[in-house]
Specification:
381 residues, mainly alpha, 3% strand
C-alpha cells in the first residue's frame, strides 16, 4: 500500500498526517508525566481522537433528531418519501445540516476550522471536476461492458423535452448532497481524526468490533463484503506498523473508515457481498485520492457523479436502491454474479475492473513523483 519512502503524495499535506498517534512530550528527567483528568481528554494535538469521535457521533445524531423532527413537522419530508430526486434531496439535507453542525462544534473545541477536515489543499475546483469526470467515465465503462456481455439490456428513453434537464439538475443536487454527507463524514472528518490518533492495534480492534456487530445482529445484507475488506487490510496494515512506515496512521485510518463505509450499506435491501465489498473498496480509493491530491474534493466530485450516472443517466439500481425519474432504462439480465442483479452494477464481479480503472484514472491525472530532495525530507519525518 505504501513504500517506506513515500513517492505518492501531493507536496501539501495536512500536518496531522503522521505515522500514528503522537506521544506526549517527554517529561524532564526525574519527573513523572502528570496524567490527570485533563491528560485523559486532551493530548498534544488537542482533544484526543477517540473523544472527538464520540462527541461528533453524539452531536450528529442529536442534530439529526432535531432537524428531522422539524422537517417532519413542517411537511418537508414524511414516512412515505420515495426514491425521487426531490425527496432524496430533502432527506439528505437532514444529515447534511447535522454533519455541518457537529463538525462546527467539534472544530471549535479542537481550535480548528471545518475546512481543516481534509477540505483544504490546492486546486479544489479542478480536483472536484476531475473527480466528476472520473466517476462518469468509470461507471459508463462498467455499464458498457455489462451491455456488451449481454448482462444488461436497455429499454426506451424515459424522459423527453424539459424533463430531461429538470431531472438532471434535481438528481445532480440530490447526489451532491449525498456526496457531501458521506464524504464529509467518512473521508473528511473521520479520516482526518483517525489519522491523528490511531495505531494498528486500535484499528484491528475496530475491525473486530465491526465484524462481531454484523455477526451478532440480524437483518444485514452482504456482510461477507465487510469481512473480506476487514481481512484484506489486516496484513498490509500490520506490515506498515511493524516497519514503522511514515504516515502509516493514514492507511490504518483508511482501513477503518472504508470498512465502516461498507458496513453502513449493509442496511440497503438488494445489496450482495460484492456490492458491499465494492462500496468499501471505493471508500479506500477515495482515501487514496486524499493522499494523492491533498484534499477530499476529488472524491466528493467522483461520488456525486458515480451516483448521478448510475441512477439518473442509466436508470439502474444504486447500491440496491432503484429510483424514479431517470433518462435511460436498463435492467440486469442473466447470471446475477455478472449482471449484479437487484444490487445494480456495483453487485457485479465486473465492478472490480471498474475499481481498477477508477484508481488508474486518479493516479494518471494526479500522481506526482517527488524529487529526490523531497523524498529524503519525507523519510526524515
Amino acid at each position: 500500500m505504501e513504500p517506506e519512502i513515500q513517492p505518492l503524495s501531493n507536496p501539501v499535506h495536512p500536518p496531522e498526517y503522521s505515522s500514528g498517534p503522537q506521544p506526549d512530550p517527554a517529561p524532564d528527567q526525574g519527573t513523572q508525566p502528570n496524567r490527570d483528568l485533563h491528560w485523559c481528554f486532551v493530548g498534544p494535538q488537542g482533544l484526543r481522537a477517540g473523544w472527538s469521535v464520540v462527541l461528533s457521533v453524539f452531536l450528529f445524531f442529536a442534530f439529526r433528531t432535531l432537524i428531522g423532527s422539524i422537517f417532519l413537522a413542517v411537511g418537508l419530508v414524511d414516512d412515505n418519501s420515495g426514491q425521487t430526486a426531490a425527496s432524496t434531496f430533502l432527506l439528505e439535507l437532514i444529515p447534511l445540516f447535522s454533519a455541518i453542525g457537529a463538525a462546527a462544534i467539534v472544530a471549535g473545541a479542537e481550535h480548528r476550522r471545518i475546512l481543516d477536515f481534509n477540505l483544504t489543499g490546492p486546486g479544489r475546483p479542478v480536483r472536484f471536476l476531475s473527480g466528476v469526470g472520473a466517476g462518469f467515465l468509470t461507471l459508463t465503462a462498467l455499464i458498457a461492458t455489462l451491455h456488451a456481455g449481454g448482462w444488461m439490456r436497455f429499454g426506451p428513453v424515459s424522459l423527453s423535452g424539459l424533463q430531461i434537464f429538470r431531472y438532471a439538475a434535481l438528481w445532480g443536487l440530490a447526489f451532491l448532497a449525498v456526496a457531501c454527507v458521506e464524504e464529509g463524514l467518512f473521508r473528511c472528518y473521520l479520516q482526518f481524526t483517525l489519522t491523528r490518533g490511531i495505531n494498528f492495534w486500535w484499528a484491528a480492534a475496530a475491525e473486530t468490533g465491526f465484524c462481531l456487530y454484523l455477526a451478532l445482529t440480524p437483518g444485514h445484507h452482504g456482510s461477507r463484503g465487510v469481512y473480506a475488506i476487514a481481512l484484506g487490510g489486516f496484513i498490509p496494515c500490520l506490515t506498515l506498523h511493524q516497519r514503522r512506515t511514515p504516515r502509516s496512521g493514514f492507511w490504518q485510518a483508511a482501513w477503518v473508515s472504508s470498512t465502516l463505509f461498507g458496513l453502513i450499506h449493509t442496511s440497503n435491501f438488494g445489496e450482495n457481498w460484492i456490492g458491499i465489498f465494492a462500496a468499501a473498496a471505493i471508500g479506500f480509493i477515495f482515501c487514496v485520492s486524499i493522499y494523492v491530491t491533498g484534499s477530499a474534493w476529488w472524491c466528493i466530485g467522483c461520488h456525486a457523479a458515480w451516483d448521478w450516472t448510475e441512477t439518473y443517466f442509466y436508470g439502474v439500481a444504486d447500491s440496491g436502491l432503484p429510483a424514479r425519474g431517470h433518462l435511460f432504462t436498463a435492467n440486469p439480465a442473466g447470471n446475477p454474479l455478472l449482471s449484479g442483479g437487484a444490487d445494480g452494477p456495483e453487485g457485479s464481479l465486473l465492478v472490480l475492473g471498474a475499481l481498477v480503472l477508477l484508481l488508474a484514472l486518479l493516479l494518471a491525472v494526479h500522481y506526482r513523483r517527488k524529487p529526490a530532495a523531497q523524498l529524503k525530507a519525507v523519510a526524515a519525518d
